# Entry
Amino acid sequence: MTMPNKPLPTQALLDQIKVRFYSGSVPEQAYYQDRRMLLYALTWPASWLEQRGLPITSQAYQNLVEERLESIAKHGDPKRYQRYFPRYLLKSLQDWFAHNGEALYEELKHVRNQLHSIDRLLQTHHPNLPEDIVAPIAQAHAILAVQNQRKKHRDPEQLDLFSGHKITT
# Structure
């Protein structure tokens, strides 16, 4: 769990996205309309990490996603992502993890990283565990996923409020 006075890295990442990809010819309201799906995309890596039991610090998580944003800025096709950037970002993150996930897994599970975590814990002389940013971000991702599922699926047996007829999709 994060420390109460430390914000999650998602806000800093959202600020970077706003400056890099939502300035210039893009209307400012587009960023606020896309914000929920941007958060979903930014929290997706945490769910991947949590499924594999990989702890990571807030700064390391932020660096990981910032590298993907830098790659999109350098090599991405603006014609493809200008229509709906959150979808492009999510797909880019998922593709990166599909291609590089095994190497990341090995790196984060390596004994060196485990020893570094223990060393950091001993240096602080603090009884609390080292910061694990994955769990709260993965929880946020799960909440966003449930909210997105509610919007997509309607019960065909449900009556429409105004017409009294069954909803057909």
User: Anything to note?
Assistant: The chain has one domain: 10-152. DSSP finds seven helices and no strands in the chain. Helices lie at 10-21, 28-51, 58-75, 78-81, 85-109, 111-124, 134-152. The two ends are 41 Å apart (CA to CA).
